[in-house]
What does this fold into?
Amino acid sequence: MKAWIPPVIAVIALAGCGKSDNAPKPIPAPIEQPAPVPAPAPPPPVVEPAAPPPAEPPAVTAPPSAAAMERPKTAGHTHVVARGETLYRIARENKVKVTDLAKWNDLSDPSHIAVGRKLRLRAPGT
It folds into this structure.
């Protein structure tokens, strides 16, 4: 026999003992998936008691002006001029025209009327 044959046979024999495709493959351990955790239920809605309707504010009335407090009561056809009053305001309050009021009372300058002057609120003869 030739001298190189035994070492070749030994190499082949040893090669067969090594890795082979017939060897069993390791089985991976199963990985357990955790069970899904359900989301917590939302808390029940908080129902607040209905608020009472807002109270109506008390009626606000303006205090009478100083001129109105000083004004003497008249019979309805005349008016006594109080401090701070204007012919325009007196006409407006009595639903007459300023020009008529000036004419009925012979006022040459309607922008100047004296405090205490008695004015006619109706045309003469009515």
Q: What stands out?
A: The longest helix spans residues 5-17. The first strand starts at residue 78 and ends at 80. The mean pLDDT is 77.
